[in-house]
Amino acid sequence: IRSWSNIPFITVPLSRAHGKSFAHRSELKHAKRIVVKLGSAVVTRGDECGLALGRLASIVEQVSMLQNQGREMMIVTSGAVAFGKQRLRHEILLSQSVRQALHSGQSQLKDMAIPVLEARACAAAGQSGLMALYEAMFTQYSICAAQILVTNLDFHDEQKRRNLNGTLHELLRMNIVPIINTNDAVVPPPEPNSDLQGVNVISVKDNDSLAARLAVEMKTDLLIVLSDVEGLFDSPPGSDDAKLIDIFYPGDQQSVTFGTKSRVGMGGMEAKVKAALWALQGGTSVVIANGTHPKISGHVITDIVEGKKVGTFFSEVKPAGPTVEQQAEMARAGGRSLAALQPEQRAEIIYRLADLLTDQREEILLANKKDLQEAENKGRLALPLLKRLSLSTSKLNSLAIGLRQIAASSQDSVGRVIRRTRIAKDLDLEQVTVPIGVLLVIFESRPDCLPQVSALAIASGNGLLLKGGKEAAHSNQILHHLTQEALSVHGVRDAVQLVNTREEVEDLCRLDKLIDLIIPRGSSQLVRNIQKAAKGIPVMGHSEGICHVYVDTDASVEKVTRIIRDSKCEYPAACNALETLLIHRDLLRTPLFDQIIDMLRVEQVKIHAGPKFASYLTFSPSEVKSLRTEYGDLECCIEVVDSVQEAVEHIHKYGSSHTDVIITENEKTAEFFLQHVDSACVFWNASTRFSDGYRFGLGAEVGISTSRIHARGPVGIEGLLTTKWLLRGDNHVVSDFSEHGSMKYLHESLPLPQRNAN
Hints:
CATH superfamily of the largest domain: Acetylglutamate kinase-like
Oligomer: single chain
Distance between the termini: 70 Å
CATH class of the largest domain: Alpha Beta
EC number: 1.2.1.41, 2.7.2.11
Number of domains: 3
Helix content: 25-40%
Strand order of the largest sheet: 5-6-4-3-7-9-10-8
Radius of gyration: 33 Å
Shape: globular
Strand content: 15-25%
Largest sheet: 8 strands, mixed
Number of helices: 25
Structural class: alpha/beta
Keywords: Amino-acid biosynthesis, ATP-binding, Kinase, Mitochondrion, Multifunctional enzyme, NADP, Nucleotide-binding, Oxidoreductase, Proline biosynthesis, Transferase
CATH architecture of the largest domain: 3-Layer(aba) Sandwich
CATH topology of the largest domain: Carbamate kinase
């Protein structure tokens, strides 16, 4: 017996053989047998008289979807009392004599007193109607439902328990959804501490305990308890400091303060937690979530089964490290401490990290070798991704050089005054640069991204959450360790956090109260998924890198093949690699065109013909499926255009606003291209591969942004800063500047402080 909150209860469940509960949310998708408990607040309307039909229909749809996937679904439902109350109220009104209704007047009829209805009578009147409603809804999905009414006595009698167990198993075997409810028409009132009257039992006093008891009896994998709150909070929901508990562990009860129970129903949150813990110790995983919120109730059950971060998940396995929410808070606090350091101190941290990359080269390469071997053994990475995963001595040396560039340029980043205005006498306004806050950077197969992004975050005074791909786990671990070692020089170790828990990217994107900016670095599919999943958090980046090179009629023969080869072949997996080659029509069947084709063949580049290019050829390469394709390999599309104007139009229609190039000796044509192409980077007679933070002299980049707001192109330190306004006055009030006031606005521009010469 465990005593908690002055309520003793049994914690030893019935013996069972189906194993332990799931340790992590991500495992919930493997749940085969599931109980969904619908609280009174979920099933009933706000007026507590009648059912919330829209919510109920949505729940039935989700249960039907899971049932049709081959799962075994059971529902423990409330609602009979509310439905019966609605029916009995109608009966009472109709039973009034017609004469009384006619003579009382319309206003008096509205105010007609309705007696208090006894709950058992309401349940008796509502059970059949509630079941008929469920049957009608499930029939829409070709699913049969069956009703089972139980009382506490049914669990105390061994023969009745066996009968109930057998009935439920037979229904599940026939693909029927059992709908279970306490028989409120005859159930006796609950007795205090009745859990102590038996051994290894939890009394059925409400539908929470009923659901837990059934879950254990039926050896279910998952119990979903839907209520009118998001889950379990560390203090009563609605209070200022209340935080949703993502994962609740047995033994954490003392950290929770319970509020009042819901507006309807027998049990409050305390009863739900008690039932959940009992079921958990019986081997059933439990999630408590909100089934009434209009934005999530339509998919709350399926989201839980898919392992998404919804509600509170009960787990017996407590991770060794902090939760991702705690890591975000640590990064916030660490980032603020980092921003408060002197510029020289932040630079010192980055210089130290650069030294560690070269000093610890052997350990880094050994960890990277483990990642490469595991990836090759599992065969889960394509060759371009394997190249991104690989580290080398030259890569580490380049990283160190880039980090030192960042350190040198970070001296005048945070706190730089970019505007000064004298509003009035002794009232001066300044606009200064400040960090954005907490950055979440999600990257795939790019361990070299970790020190680059960390250095930029340190230089700009931002807290940082890093989520790397599992294919680079060993490399990321040692690089993060070295980063924290460098941060420890000035006691700000927590400013950069590596997320090692099984957090899904979609769940991270929901932490809008903890994260200020998301920067994805990876495949176009990853970026699109993050942009779709981000709720209220800005996303900086680009979903695709469809880069063009346009060869004009006045192009230099010597420059064309060099620029095209470098753009396509130097690193074909990069987002700034050439994907579509635009050729002026007049260059077809010329020696220059032949040289381009020969060079691509020598480099083993697979060519796809655009529609116009294919029309000029008798035997053409395979025609391109889409002109909006990022190949990320030794492949490219060739298309023909009639003019520079058509090249610009093609780029605007099929490009991704990343990087586009013109090769020509005609300055007028080049300037037209540079001014009219609306991309983040537009080059003249230079490879697309120059679109890079290191090559731009930024030291490194957190990514390349094709956004039109805030930062665009390769994003370095400047792109990770925002501004705030500082106003210094002396007893100034706005009323002094009114028509009859004593002061006048000056709005004079003041000179900026001298910037650091370094």
